[in-house]
Amino acid sequence: MGKTEAILFAGGEPVALDRIAQVLGVRTYAIEEIIDALKEKYNTPQSGIHLLRLENTAQLCTNPAYIQPVREVLDLKRNTPLSQAAMEVLAVVAYNQPVTKAFVEQVRGVDCSGVIGSLVQKELLEERGRLELPGRPLLYGTTENFLRCFQLASIDDLPPPPTGDEENEGVPGDDELETMEL
User: CA spacing 20 to 30 A to 60: which of 51, 121, 133, 148?
Assistant: First the structure.
């Protein structure tokens, strides 16, 4: 367990579980068991460290309850919250990925070039290849950073999309997303 813990601490970024298993010469399921044990150890309200599991990777991070003092001590600048347009684009991409810019614009009814560029720059969206159509438009999808920021283990953990009756009520989890800082 100590070796896995040291790897996650030193990594700083999400580390693939199968890579840890390969380096330590064990099976991936053994690393998954260790990750579960580490989550029990760290993911308590009083712990300053939490372990995030993102699909087939894991990462050590700060307990969200202690973010403010960490920012103050390290003099980290507060990131600006995402705009409503950015949240809408993220929702369209997350629920329909991979998608083209034209698809997002068709759903939203406005030009999304700037918003998509900003989300790519913030590493919340990434290019996922091109469609085999005239002009070969780019395809976009969400990133591992998107999962981390919204505390999702995988894209399957998204809440169900709203039905047509709820259209005016906003994206599921809007109240949580509006407070999200990147």
Answer: 121
Which residue type, as a one-letter code, is found at position 175?
D
Q: Helices (DSSP H) in the chain: which residue ranges?
A: 2-11, 17-24, 28-42, 67-74, 84-96, 101-108, 113-121, 144-149, 174-178
Asked whether 116 and 108 are in contact (CB, 8 A), the reply is no
The candidate with the shortest Cα–Cα distance to 150, out of 83, 52, 77, is: 52
Rounded to two decimals, the pTM is 0.55
What does the pLDDT look like over 108-132, one tens digit per residue?
A: 889 888 899 889 988 899 999 888 8
- d(Cα 42, Cα 34) in Å, to the nearest integer? 12
131's tokens: 């469609």
CA–CA separation, 79 and 181 (whole Å): 6
β-partners of residue 149 are none
pLDDT tens digit string along 71-81?
A: 777 765 556 67
CA dist 55 to 102, 147, 177, Å? 29, 9, 21
